[in-house]
Amino acid sequence: MPSDNKQDETCAHAAGPKKSADLASQPALALELPFTFVGAIVVGGAIGFFLDRWLHTSPWLMLVFGALGFYAGIREVIRRLPGGGKDSQGG
């Protein structure tokens, strides 16, 4: 039937832009993830640094909050990667 052929052609054309959008988002993700990771560590370390100055506990809180920032950065990078996070685990 002629109408069936037209639907198949539109499906084939719809897959093209989606594939190119996926290819375009990969370099953007690759440029974004290092800033996300380092930013989490810097924010955690800065919070710890200022708490250390306020409470005179240097360098312990900076190390603790820097480690928490490291954990948060790793977790965020894994969440943002394709196939990472809860969505890929089905739960």
Query: What number is the mean pLDDT?
Result: 83
The amount of beta strand, in percent, is: under 5%
CA distance, first residue to last residue: 42 Å
Helicity level, as a percent range? over 70%
Number of strands: 0
Overall outline: elongated
Oligomer designation: single chain
The largest β sheet comes out as: none
Give the structural class: mainly alpha
Give me the strand/helix succession: HHH
Number of helical segments with 4 or more residues: 3
Q: Which blocks of ≥5 consecutive residues have pLDDT under 50? A: none
Cα-atom radius of gyration: 22 Å
What this model shows, in words?
The structure is a single chain. With 91 residues, the protein is mainly α. 87% of the residues lie in helices and 0% in strands. It is built from three helices and no strands. It has helices at residues 2-55, 60-80, 86-89.
